[in-house]
Every structure is written in structure tokens, then in C-alpha cells.
Amino acid sequence: MAREFSKKFYESQAWIRCRNAYRQSKFGLCEQCGQPGVEVHHKIWLTPDNINNPDITLNWDNLILLCRKCHAEIHMTTPATRSDVMFDDHGNLIKR
Ligand SMILES: [Zn+2]
Ligand SMILES: [Zn+2]
């Protein structure tokens, strides 16, 4: 159940190109454990406020390539049990 605001972004050519190029620059490996990386995580989570800001959404400094395990861990170690945020289909924390 991806939220509309991020769904459009994740389907955009700009993001797909950015994500693929970033993944290639890391040789497709998780930056934390060296296993094959499959998910590009935004260090600053996407919100309706920053979704149209390429300095956040398409900035390589804000990206990290992770395998599924490390990605899940990153989201588990972030402030848990907050009622004002939730995860979208891409594992990004978003405001409810
Ligand atoms: Zn990993
Ligand atoms: Zn993430």
C-alpha cells in the first residue's frame, strides 16, 4: 500500500535512472555487508514535504545501497513504535 505521493516518484524515470546508476556505482553490493544489494534506501526518508526536492530524492549523498536484511535492520533500528510514521512498500518511513 504505497502512498500516492511516493508511488509516483518511485515509478518516475528520473528515480529509476538515478537508482540504477547509483547501484552500478556500488557494483551492486550492499554498502553495509557486501552481499548483493537490492534496495536503494534514502537516508533522509521521503515525505510529502520533500518528495519534489531532487536534492533529497535524487541526491546520491542521500542514498545507500542495501541488501534486504540490512535494509530491514536500518528500519528496525530507527525510532520504533511511532504512531505518526509508517513504512511504504519500498521500506521508506513516511508520515501517516
Ligand atoms: Zn547487507
Ligand atoms: Zn529504506
Report what the structure shows.
35% of the residues lie in helices and 15% in strands. It has 96 residues and is an alpha+beta fold. The chain has one domain (4-95). The strands form two sheets. Strands 1-2 form a two-stranded antiparallel ribbon. Strands 3-4 form a two-stranded antiparallel sheet. The longest helix has 13 residues, at 13-25. The structure holds zinc ion (2 copies). Residues 41, 71, 75, 91-92 line the site of one zinc ion. The site of one zinc ion has 5 residues, from helix 4.
Question: What would a concise description of this structure say?
Answer:
With 96 residues, the protein is of the alpha+beta class. It has helices at residues 4-10, 13-25, 54-57, 68-77, and strands at 39-42, 63-66, 85-87, 93-95.
